[in-house]
């Protein structure tokens, strides 16, 4: 191998981290969405269900985009999540005015699953600085999910708060992941420059 040859590991890492800015933009968008959700004057379960359905569709789109930039194993996980979030959105849209209990059940399922995924991503990135932010985001999503599962009589305000908190937490996790990916991409460039590998 000559000094200007490419290295497959560096190429792979650069391919998966070069779009770090996408995670940053997505995270900021989720945080803005959380603020917008809290500004709604929501008074019915049907409105919250539609709002949560839109939230899940945005989460599905986010997973498709993230999956397109991920490694093969994580790509499958992200695309399966996108399909799952689409199903959850469909459930929220199907009978939006049914009951608080059914909506809380759908929301709890989403937040538990999302929390477990973010915890797994944090643990897999535990050697990187800032991984704990993603871990805390996953734990917070898990808490919201279990809280929603245990709440049989909740108000519209609580449901809206869960959706907004979930968006905020997810946004913080995405921003943290974006900065972690940026650090890795910068390190790959430093290795390439130091070794002459392209």
Structure description:
InterPro entries: Acid_resist_chaperone_HdeD, DUF308_memb. Pfam families: DUF308 (PF03729). The protein is mainly α. It has one domain. 82% of the residues lie in helices and 0% in strands. The chain contains seven helices and no strands. Helix 4 packs antiparallel against helix 5. The longest helix is centred in the C-terminal third of the chain and has 40 residues.
Shape: elongated
Structural class: mainly alpha
| Alpha-carbon distance between the two ends | 12 Å
Number of helices: 7
Q: What's the β-strand tally? A: 0
Order of helices and strands: HHHHHHH
Report Rg: 19 Å
* pLDDT averaged residue by residue: 81
- What is the subunit organization of this protein? single chain
Helix content: over 70%
Biggest pleated-sheet summary: none
């Amino acid at each position: 191998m000559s000094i200007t040859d490419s290295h497959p590991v560096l190429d792979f890492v650069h391919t998966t981290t070069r779009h770090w800015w996408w995670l940053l933009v997505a995270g900021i968008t989720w945080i803005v969405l959380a603020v917008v959700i809290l500004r709604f004057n929501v008074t019915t379960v049907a409105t919250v269900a539609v709002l949560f359905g839109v939230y899940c569709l945005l989460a599905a789109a986010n997973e498709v985009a993230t999956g397109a930039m991920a490694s093969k194993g994580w790509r499958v996980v992200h695309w399966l999540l996108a399909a799952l979030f689409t199903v959850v959105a469909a459930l929220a849209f199907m009978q939006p005015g049914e009951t608080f209990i059914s909506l809380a059940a759908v929301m709890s399922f989403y937040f538990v699953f999302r929390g477990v995924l973010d915890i797994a991503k944090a643990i897999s990135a535990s050697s990187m600085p800032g991984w704990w932010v993603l871990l805390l985001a996953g734990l917070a999503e898990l808490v919201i999910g279990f809280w929603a599962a245990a709440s049989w009589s909740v108000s519209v305000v609580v449901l809206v708060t869960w959706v907004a908190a979930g968006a905020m937490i997810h946004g913080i996790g995405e921003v943290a992941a974006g900065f972690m990916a940026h650090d890795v991409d910068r390190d790959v460039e430093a290795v390439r420059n130091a070794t002459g590998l392209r």
